[in-house]
């Protein structure tokens, strides 16, 4: 038995790709995403050589890119975008394909029982360590990344307001938690329960013509509402993945690169910069640079405590007394 690490890539002409790139799907943005995908999945395979690593796409990828991925032991499979389909009026419409892929994988695995654990992650992530602990903890429930937004944060408010609109009774007793769409992991049994809830939530929130989800409602809305309603235990995946923001407007770093390090870095603002540099580096050197160098390329700096005279005096006294 093996573990499955997978990512999803969907292409629909004219649909928005992501709010970070601010672009619609076309050939140029597709190449950018394929370079991101290459870095994401190659780094995952390097650190987890015994696990299957698969890219799921809703359309054929060029022979050149399929070969590049296969040469690095990454399989490419076609999965039709036939579930969780929503209008392109929703800015995250293409992101719903992740739900479709995980639903497809779980159904298929129920028949062939090929994998012990399954992980679906975003294509703007970078792996730095083996997933041993990640797989061990996912035996106990569905691992999802709790973003940490407070009750009135705009992103969480979009999810909470839709939850209150479609599930008014449940919303009275359940404070909705914002889970990111970049990471979902678990066993076949737990993911089967969870994805059944996701399908029910999506049906409820899209079939009533008198109610509409917020236009900013994306896959994270479905993941988060399902997490609040599912019978499967949901566990915060924060020990294994961290979302680094490296944009000038919102810059967020953490000590999780070294102290209590996570094994997956999610770096959404680096799609057109850091990931492209890492792709070029790998093609040239057939390996990635050290984690310290990767952090520098992504613009992730080490957390530093301001120096003060009291620090120096304390260290001198401790050294003398020791």
How would you describe what is shown here?
The chain has 322 residues and is an alpha/beta fold. It has a single domain (2-321), classed as Spore Coat Polysaccharide Biosynthesis Protein SpsA, Chain A (Alpha-Beta Complex), CATH 3.90.550. 42% of the residues lie in helices and 17% in strands. The protein is built from eleven helices and twelve strands. A seven-stranded mixed sheet has the order 3-2-1-4-7-6-8, sandwiched between helices. Strands 5-12-9 form a three-stranded mixed sheet. Strand 1, helix 1 and strand 2 form a beta-alpha-beta unit. Helix 3 packs across helix 7.
Keywords:
322 residues; alpha/beta; Spore Coat Polysaccharide Biosynthesis Protein SpsA, Chain A; seven-stranded mixed β-sheet; three-stranded mixed β-sheet; 11 helices; 42% helix
Main-sheet strand order equals 3-2-1-4-7-6-8
Structural class, from helix and strand content? alpha/beta
DSSP strand tally: 12
Quote the distance from N terminus to C terminus.
Answer: 53 Å
Which regions are unreliable across 5 or more consecutive residues at pLDDT < 50? 19-23
| Mean pLDDT across all amino acids | 90
Full CATH superfamily name: Spore Coat Polysaccharide Biosynthesis Protein SpsA, Chain A
CATH hierarchy: architecture: Alpha-Beta Complex
CATH topology grouping:
Spore Coat Polysaccharide Biosynthesis Protein SpsA, Chain A
How would you spell out the order of helices and strands?
A: EHEHEHEEHEHHEHHEEEEEHHH
Round the Cα radius of gyration to an integer and report it: 21 Å
Helix amount: 40-55%
Helix count, DSSP H or I runs of 4 or more residues: 11
Amount of beta strand? 15-25%
| Gross morphology | globular
Please indicate the count of domains: 1
């Amino acid at each position: 038995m093996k573990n499955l690490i997978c990512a999803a890539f969907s292409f629909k002409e004219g649909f928005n790709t992501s709010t970070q790139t601010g672009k619609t799907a076309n050939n140029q943005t597709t190449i950018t995403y394929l370079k991101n995908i290459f870095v994401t999945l190659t780094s995952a395979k390097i650190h987890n050589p015994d696990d299957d690593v698969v890219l799921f796409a809703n359309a054929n990828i060029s022979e050149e890119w399929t070969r590049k991925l296969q040469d690095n032991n990454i399989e490419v499979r076609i999965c039709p975008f036939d579930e969780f389909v929503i209008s392109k009026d929703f800015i995250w419409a293409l992101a719903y394909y992740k739900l479709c892929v995980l639903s497809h994988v779980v159904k298929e695995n129920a028949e062939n029982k090929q994998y012990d654990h399954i992980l679906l992650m975003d294509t703007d992530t970078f792996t730095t360590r083996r997933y041993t602990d990640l797989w061990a903890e996912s035996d106990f429930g569905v691992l999802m990344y709790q973003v940490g937004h407070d009750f009135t944060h705009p992103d969480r408010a979009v999810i909470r307001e839709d939850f209150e609109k479609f599930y008014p009774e449940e919303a009275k007793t359940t404070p909705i938690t914002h889970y990111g769409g970049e990471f979902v992991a678990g066993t076949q049994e737990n993911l089967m329960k969870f994805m059944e809830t996701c399908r029910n939530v999506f049906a409820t929130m899209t079939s009533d013509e008198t109610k509409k989800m917020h236009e900013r409602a994306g896959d994270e809305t479905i993941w988060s509402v399902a997490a609040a309603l599912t019978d499967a235990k949901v566990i915060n995946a924060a020990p294994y993945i961290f979302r680094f923001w490296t944009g000038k407007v919102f810059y967020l770093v953490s000590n999780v690169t070294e102290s209590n390090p996570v094994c997956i870095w999610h770096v959404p603002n680096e799609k057109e910069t850091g990931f492209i540099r890492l792709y070029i580096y790998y093609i040239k050197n057939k390996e990635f640079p050290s984690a310290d160098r990767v952090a520098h390329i992504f613009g992730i700096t080490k957390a530093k405590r301001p120096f003060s005279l009291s620090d120096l005096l304390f260290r001198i006294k401790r050294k003398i007394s020791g």
